[in-house]
From TrEMBL:
Family: Belongs to the peptidase M28 family. M28B subfamily.
Species assigned in the record: Callithrix jacchus
Chief location: membrane
Source taxonomy: Eukaryota, Metazoa, Chordata, Craniata, Vertebrata
GO cellular component, one term: membrane
Topological type in the membrane: Single-pass type II membrane protein
Protein's recorded name: N-acetylated alpha-linked acidic dipeptidase like 2
InterPro entries per UniProt: PA_dom_sf, Peptidase_M28, Peptidase_M28B, TFR-like_dimer_dom, TFR-like_dimer_dom_sf
This protein's UniProt keywords: Membrane, Signal-anchor, Transmembrane, Transmembrane helix
Region (Disordered): 58-78
CDD domains referenced in this protein's UniProt entry, alphabetically: M28_PMSA_TfR_like
Domain of life: Eukaryota
Signal peptide per UniProt: none
Localisation per UniProt entry: Membrane
Biased composition (Polar residues): 58-74
Length: 778
């Protein structure tokens, strides 16, 4: 009993009335001592409850009592929530809750109700703002795919057809500014931003006032390149296209010499011929195809030839094509303005005084003229079996070759416009087509190219006008001077090289989209092949026939050249081909015919193929421009390198070991960095930016400084689909066959080895950077 009194005395005066009632109860216990055993436990329980209540309300300290069983504020859910959930928390006590507790409960209930109302009101406001205001955050993959389809479904074949026909009517103008102005006006009307002309004054090699001629010394007969006699009447009957049957940047003059048949001009052909004849200052009869023309001319020039009659053997073309009288043009320019090699043709630039890029007199001629030179009336014999054109070994033909060209400074015009990116405006996806250039002929392929790029702009801009933008900037370019060696694209690239080296993400090539109608032939960098496969498979699901498409990295014609070979930019091209043409020799597309044996509208009368190319290219453009992580595959580059080293190739053991290390580092990079970044929860902006910077520069490791003429500096690209090895190694093996030394081969092997090692170091450095960043955060 004394214990109770001491505790009662320790209570601070001025406490609540419940404390006073306890004191009265303790006094009553003193008066009724005989009831001590009956009242002691209830009194203690009551004291415990009151002590807990006063501890909560008055924050008094009680250190000598064990109150663990009724602590009210230890729940992580909060005191009021626990009181709500544990209904028997207070009700198990026999004494009813005091009045102040009921008031406290009501007060907390009011607070809870107010909080719930404010919370619900906040949700309503947030929902209203979200539904009425556009969000700048990246969309999910599903939303992006729906967006792409909304854009692409507006592309219609009929619109492309109208645009194509309007363009074809303009190309006959001698001034290409008319075509350029038409393109600029159309792009501007569609809403493209800051469409402008970018002009360069360049050195063009043009045909002379009269056509070149070939005269037979034995009979004195004179022929034009198409095989027609040199009489005035025959020239009047022929069109002006006769003038454009020439090799741009060839040497000019007259050469009278024996004609020596060198077939395709391969290393083995020249080795065989040089053993039999003196070839110095002779005229080579050369077939186009199998290897780049510039490379074959370099071999002939080194061997000592003085001139070249260039032709296409009818046996190398599909049976449906009869090019016997067709004349064509070839550019001998590796790229850009020949008077300013390696730097842009801007005002004040020093110009080198060279009008020709080879010492050879080069003249393209028709198959019918070749047949007259070798005294063979037909190239095809009985049973429709084609006999290749060939000069008999025991016969001598002497001709007089006259080549006439004129070199002039002319203005080449590029048309450039863009859609500015939202989150990464300093990263560019370049989409390139080309337009007709005066003083040349490109058939109708340029009109297809321009109509397709315009159709995509037409589909894209309505979304842009409604507020949507891609994450990265899309730059649209229509190049001029393509027929003379991709001059417009080279000069623009050299002009903005410092910016482009750092900022260009990909190049989409629309050079010649319709070259046939039987098979779709995509060409892509190794890092982009997986993306192209996905898009092609999706397109196949919408067609009745879906043959397996072979996607490869091979050398292609057109303005992608500078971006692939000087900037190391991943590229993509979709084009329809004639499958029979693909079965023939490669590099026949180097010839630019004045008139196509089959027009574009004959190959694609309803322009459905144009529509397919536009949609496939458009979806690739949108995905590269809008995906948070660039859709490039690092591991595919390593696999491509290993595939290039397969087969019975000498001296490649070091290359194989280095390729294996490259694959290991690429696999580690793919699994440790790329896969986590594809998870939206892991997409930290700094991490994504670092990753994309690594992805866009992967191919730069495979640029080599010196390659044979006509070969790609980017060694990831093959010569053709039949060649599965590194092109510079193939050339080195062929070159070393007739030689006792293997210095050329060792040099080529060293270049490939250094490229593979550079890529391996590049991936390892990327992994180290990510590791350092993560360690710094920890």
């Amino acid at each position: 009993m004394a214990y109770q009194k001491v505790n009662a005395d320790q209570r601070a005066p001025g406490h609540s009335q419940y404390l006073d009632n306890d004191d009265l109860q303790a006094t009553a216990l003193d008066l009724e001592w005989d009831m001590e055993k009956e009242l002691e436990e209830p009194g203690f329980d009551q004291f415990q409850l009151d002590s807990a209540e006063n501890q909560n309300l008055g924050h008094s300290e009680t250190t000598d009592l064990n109150l663990d069983s009724i602590q009210p504020a230890t729940s992580p859910k909060g005191r009021f929530q626990r009181l709500q959930e544990e209904s028997d928390y207070i009700s198990h006590y026999t004494r009813s809750a005091p009045k102040s507790n009921r008031c406290n409960f009501c007060h907390l209930l009011k607070i809870l109700c107010t909080a719930i109302i404010v919370f619900i009101f906040g949700i309503l406001i947030g929902y209203y703002i979200h539904t009425n205001c556009p969000s700048d955050s990246p969309s999910s993959g599903t939303v992006d795919h729906q967006l792409y389809q909304e854009i692409l479904k507006t592309i219609q074949a009929e619109d492309i057809k109208k645009s194509f026909r309007n363009l074809v009517q303009l190309y006959k103008s001698e001034d290409d500014m008319e075509v350029s102005k038409k393109i600029k006006t159309q792009w501007t009307s569609l809403g493209l931003e800051d469409v402008q002309f970018v002009n360069y004054s360049v050195l063009l090699n043009l045909p002379g006032l009269s056509p070149s001629t070939v005269t037979l010394s034995s009979s004195g007969e004179c022929f034009h390149p198409d095989g027609q006699p040199c009489s005035e009447e025959a020239r009047k009957e022929s069109s002006q296209d006769l003038l454009y049957s020439y090799a741009a940047y060839s040497a000019k003059g007259t050469l009278k010499a024996e004609v020596i048949d060198v077939s395709y001009g391969m290393a083995d052909d020249l080795k065989r011929i040089r053993k039999m004849k003196n070839v110095t200052n002779r005229i080579a009869l050369l077939k186009l195809g199998k290897l780049p023309l510039l490379y074959k001319l370099s071999l002939l020039e080194k061997a000592g030839f003085g001139g070249v009659l260039l032709y296409i053997d009818p046996c190398d073309l599909p049976k449906t094509v009869n090019p016997s009288h067709d004349i064509f043009m070839v550019p001998l320019n590796p790229g850009g303005d020949p008077s300013t090699p390696g730097y842009p043709s801007v005002d004040g630039s020093f110009r080198q005084s060279q009008s020709n890029l080879t010492s050879l007199l080069v003249q393209p001629i028709s198959a019918s003229l070749v047949a007259k030179l070798i005294s063979s009336p037909k190239a095809r014999t009985k049973n429709d079996v084609c006999s290749p054109l060939q000069l008999p070994n025991n016969e001598i033909r002497v001709v007089s070759l006259q080549v006439q060209t004129v070199t002039k400074l002319k203005t080449v015009t590029n048309v450039v416009g863009y859609v500015m990116g939202l989150t990464s405006p300093d990263r560019y996806i370049i989409v390139g087509s080309h337009h007709h250039t005066a003083h040349s002929y490109n058939g109708q392929e340029w009109a297809s190219s321009t109509a397709i790029i315009t159709a995509f702009i037409r589909a894209l801009m309505p979304k842009v006008k409604r507020g949507w933008r891609p994450d990265r900037t899309i730059v649209f370019c229509s190049w001029g001077g393509t027929a003379f060696g991709n001059i417009g694209s080279y000069e623009w690239g050299e002009d903005f090289k410092t910016v482009l080296q750092k900022n260009v993400v990909a190049y989409i090539n629309l050079h010649s989209p319709i070259r046939g109608n039987s098979t779709l032939r995509p060409v892509a960098s190794p890092s982009l092949q997986q993306l192209v496969v996905e898009k092609n498979n999706f397109n196949c699901t919408r067609r009745t026939q879906c043959p397996e498409t072979n996607i490869s990295s091979i050398q292609i014609q057109g303005d992608a050249d500078y971006f692939i070979n000087h900037l190391g930019v991943p590229s993509v091209q979709f084009a329809y081909e004639d499958i029979k043409t693909l079965e023939g020799p490669s590099f026949l597309s180097e010839a630019l015919f004045s008139t196509q044996s089959t027009t574009v509208e004959e190959m694609d009368p309803f322009f459905k193929l144009h529509e397919t190319i536009t949609k496939l290219s458009g979806e690739v453009i949108l995905q590269i421009a809008n995906e948070p992580v660039l859709p490039f595959n690092a591991l595919d580059i390593a696999l491509e390198v290993q595939n290039n080293l397969k087969g019975d190739q000498p001296n490649t053991h070091q290359l194989l070991a280095m390729a294996s290390r490259l694959r290991e580092s690429a696999e580690l990079f793919q699994s440790d960095e790329m896969r986590p970044a594809n998870d939206p929860k892991e997409r930290a902006p700094i991490r994504i930016r670092m990753l994309n910077d690594i992805l866009q520069d992967m191919e730069k490791s495979f640029l080599v400084q010196q390659v044979p003429p006509g070969f790609y500096r980017n060694i990831l690209y093959h010569l053709d689909e039949r060649t599965g090895q590194f092109s510079i190694l193939v050339e080195a093996w062929e070159h070393c066959k007739p030689l006792a030394t293997d210095e050329t081969l060792q040099e080529a092997l060293s270049k490939v080895l250094n490229s593979i090692n550079s890529a391996h170091v590049y991936f390892k450095a990327g992994l180290d950077v990510f590791k350092s960043v993560l360690d710094g955060k920890n």
